[in-house]
Specification:
The chain is α+β, with helices and mostly antiparallel strands and 347 residues long. It contains 15 helices and twelve strands. The protein folds into four domains: 97 residues, Orthogonal Bundle (PTS-regulatory domain, PRD); 51 residues, no CATH class; 82 residues, Gyrase A, domain 2 (2-Layer Sandwich); 43 residues, Orthogonal Bundle (DNA polymerase, domain 1), CATH 1.10.150. α9 runs antiparallel to α10. The chain is elongated. It starts with 13 loop residues before the first helix and ends with a helix. About 3% of the residues have low confidence.
Length: 347
């Protein structure tokens, strides 16, 4: 027989093998987290919790982060990279405030700012007051490193709600970008930036950022900014990263099969009953996963037909699947069949 080179042997159940290759080592994972060096207060979710996040397509990861690569002079010059970090680094009012005092009788909020933090972020008291006025359209004055906000109300509930809202305002940097730090690639010696949150669309507007290499572990953000192909690659990359961190080596072909299945419709779908498993064409395949009675009753009510073309439904009723040896159908010539019948009769 002539030698043939195939990417996949015809009839191989690639989906089943991929599911086993990812699912089996997934059960061996430990609940482990690790710190990203230099990013304060950032503990990246890893192991089984992160794997569940990916296959369940959570709208926002528990610990989002971004890699921001630089171009031109910024990639090799630390001082230039540091200037870009200052433009990205998100600074909220709470980050630079020593104390927030609420005066309910006068209807004012006093925000006492930290001198050192103001200097570190190249801010002034007047700049902070001006930014607050611009963001929430409220009167804000200054006095000796203190921002004085007049609320024009004496309602304790309204003043407290306003104080909380002001504390969360972004005064400097890119909103939702998080804390940014500079790191250096040992191989290429180029500088890049890691942030402990994700707003790549905002970060891309800054000069010096290489928009072609920016990356976030937020799959839905990659989908919104770059499209479904980028989301598919992010799913596969994140799955590979999670498994490798646990010392598990899974062939990327299996990971891409899962990523392709999750994004083949043009949107990102999870693998559960609200996604891939719940939307299968086969009635028995849907019923075999979850909500069995619901699927069978709906199929009966609407007169659905199951063509029994998949693996799950055929295994469920004990029928041979159309993969492997099941892809071959034997045919016997009539004359050969008559000879076999004659032999049996003689016996």
């Amino acid at each position: 027989m002539a030698k043939r080179n195939f990417f996949v042997i015809p009839g191989e159940p690639v989906g089943v093998i991929a599911a086993q290759s990812i699912g089996e080592p997934g059960t061996q994972m430990v609940l482990r987290s690790f710190h990203y060096a230099g990013v304060a207060s950032s503990i990246a979710t890893s192991g089984l919790p992160r794997l569940v996040e990916i296959v369940d397509t959570r709208k926002k990861p528990a610990t989002p982060f971004s890699y921001v690569y630089l171009k031109g002079k910024a990639a090799k010059d630390f001082e230039t990279a540091e200037q870009i970090v200052k433009k990205i680094n998100e600074v909220k009012v709470n980050d630079i405030a020593k104390r927030v005092l609420e005066n309910f009788s006068k209807g004012t909020i006093l925000i006492r700012l930290d001198d050192q933090k103001l200097e570190a972020n190249e801010l002034t008291t007047k700049a902070v007051a001006s930014k607050i006025e611009k963001l929430i359209k409220i009167e804000a004055g200054t006095s000796e490193h203190t921002v004085i906000i007049k609320t024009h109300t004496k309602s304790a509930k309204q003043i407290r709600a306003l104080a909380v809202q002001i504390g969360k305002l972004t005064i400097n940097g890119i909103e939702n970008a998080g804390r940014a730090v500079i790191k250096q690639d040992k191989a290429t010696e180029e500088f890049y930036i890691v942030t402990n949150n994700s707003n790549i669309l905002g970060i891309m507007t800054i000069d010096g950022v290489d928009t072609g290499r920016i990356y976030t572990n937020d799959i839905f953000e990659m989908y919104r900014v770059f499209g479904v192909e980028a989301a598919r690659n992010t799913v596969a990359k994140e799955l590979d990263t999670v498994l490798r961190e646990q010392g598990i080596n899974v062939d990327q072909r299996h990971l891409f099969i899962l990523a392709d299945a999750m994004t083949s419709s043009g949107a990102i779908k999870n693998v559960g009953r609200r996604g891939l498993s719940g939307e299968k064409e086969s009635i028995f395949a849907r019923a075999a996963y979850e909500e069995t009675v619901k699927h069978l009753i709906n199929a009966a009510a609407f007169g659905e037909k199951d063509d029994m073309l998949g693996v799950t439904e055929n295994v469920l009723i004990g029928k041979q699947i159309g993969l492997g040896t099941g892809t071959v159908t034997l045919a016997i010539k009539k004359e050969d069949l008559s000879k076999i019948s004659e032999k049996k009769a003689k016996k």
